């Protein structure tokens, strides 16, 4: 285990609004593990991939500023959102390449930052998802030693989605097509990982604003396959996946013509349960699909 882990915390938009339980559970989990988070309260929305539809320079400048805020603290930037990781991580890769191959472009980005009296991007910080921090920095052996409530008997199906795995050229601790980091984490907590087709595919969220029927069909298909594989719950590292798979599950059921009722947990909620944190402190009562079956299976309802 790495000692005195400290990160510049980028909570993102959804965790501070529609998925407040993600913000809450991340705070409880990191506090229990002794991980220090310095929240970047001046950070801006990453754009969720939409800024580049108007201008790549806009996406790069906004997120260069976000990264520069972490650089000023001399800390890696930590996010618990797969979409934020994909967008900011990809910008970081692009700007680090620009330092060598396109310095004029990087100078243009930094000039725009200077006009707004913002610190320049220097390329000295790492952009890291919470999953990578737990697996790579904290370490699964150290995490296992902190477990107070082993999740024995709970069948957990990871839903990686697409952005976390394939938005960047390099992926730490995992394979973009055959990932195992979440499943390894489940085992460290005492849970049984469920492997199923669709765990690395899109949840359908990006389609939801203009092709709602197709979006819900995609979400329903992922849930149906997980249920057929024996999952007691889905666990996702992405709040947007959570919105489509949990918050909209009643609507998804109408589209697929089947009752589903599969609980969907945020990654820090699952870890928090294993650490012995009370379910209410993890915001488990906020979900649309009841998480009570999960708690009952663990004997902590």
Pick out its properties:
alpha/beta, 8 strands, four-stranded parallel beta sheet, 13 helices, 301 residues
Quick structural overview:
Residues 7-88, 157-246 form the Cysteine-rich domain. The chain has 301 residues and is of the alpha/beta class.
Task: Output mean pLDDT.
Answer: 93
Radius of gyration: 19 Å
Helix content: 40-55%
Main sheet summary:
4 strands, parallel
User: What proportion strand?
Assistant: 5-15%
Number of strands: 8
Number of helices: 13
> What does the overall shape look like?
globular
Which parts are unreliable, with pLDDT below 50 for 5 consecutive residues or more?
Answer: none
Distance between the termini: 31 Å
Tell me what you see in this structure.
With 301 residues, this protein is α/β, with parallel strands linked by helices. It is built from 13 helices and eight strands. Strands 2-1-3-4 form a four-stranded parallel sheet, with helices on both faces. The radius of gyration is 19 Å and the shape is globular.
Topology:
Elements: E1 6-10, H1 20-33, E2 36-39, H2 51-54, H3 56-72, E3 77-79, H4 82-101, H5 103-115, E4 127-129, H6 130-146, E5 155-158, H7 163-166, H8 181-188, E6 192-194, H9 212-228, E7 233-236, H10 239-247, H11 249-256, E8 264-266, H12 267-274, H13 292-298
Parallel strand pairs: 1-2, 1-3, 3-4, 5-6, 5-7, 7-8
Helix pairs in contact: 1-12, 3-4, 3-5, 4-5, 6-8, 9-11
């Amino acid at each position: 285990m790495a000692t005195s882990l400290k990160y510049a915390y980028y909570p993102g938009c959804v965790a501070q609004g529609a998925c407040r339980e993600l913000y809450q559970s991340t705070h409880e989990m990191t506090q229990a593990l002794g991980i220090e988070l310095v929240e970047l309260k001046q950070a801006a929305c990453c754009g969720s991939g939409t800024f580049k539809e108007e201008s790549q320079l806009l996406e790069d400048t906004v997120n260069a500023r976000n990264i520069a805020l972490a650089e000023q603290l001399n800390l890696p930037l930590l996010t618990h959102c797969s979409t934020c990781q994909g967008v900011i991580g990809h910008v970081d890769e692009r700007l680090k390449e620009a330092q060598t191959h396109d310095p004029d472009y990087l100078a243009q980005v930094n000039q725009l930052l200077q006009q707004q009296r913002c610190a320049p991007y220097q390329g000295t910080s790492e952009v890291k998802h919470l999953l990578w921090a737990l697996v790579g920095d904290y370490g699964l052996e150290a995490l296992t030693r902190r477990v107070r409530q082993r999740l024995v008997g709970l069948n957990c199906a990871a839903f990686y989605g697409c952005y976390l795995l394939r938005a960047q050229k390099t992926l730490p601790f995992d394979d973009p097509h055959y990932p195992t980091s979440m499943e390894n984490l489940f085992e460290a907590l005492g849970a049984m990982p469920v492997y199923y087709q669709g765990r690395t595919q899109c949840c359908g969220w990006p389609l939801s604003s203009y092709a709602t029927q197709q979006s819900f069909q995609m979400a329903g298909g992922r849930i149906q396959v997980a249920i057929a594989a024996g999952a007691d719950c889905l666990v996702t590292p992405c709040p947007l996946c959570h919105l489509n798979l949990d918050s909209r599950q009643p609507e998804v059921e109408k589209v697929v013509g089947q009752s589903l009722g599969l609980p969907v947990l945020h990654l820090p909620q699952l870890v928090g349960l294993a650490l012995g944190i009370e379910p209410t402190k993890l915001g488990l009562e906020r979900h649309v699909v009841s998480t009570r079956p999960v708690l009952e299976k663990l004997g902590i309802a």
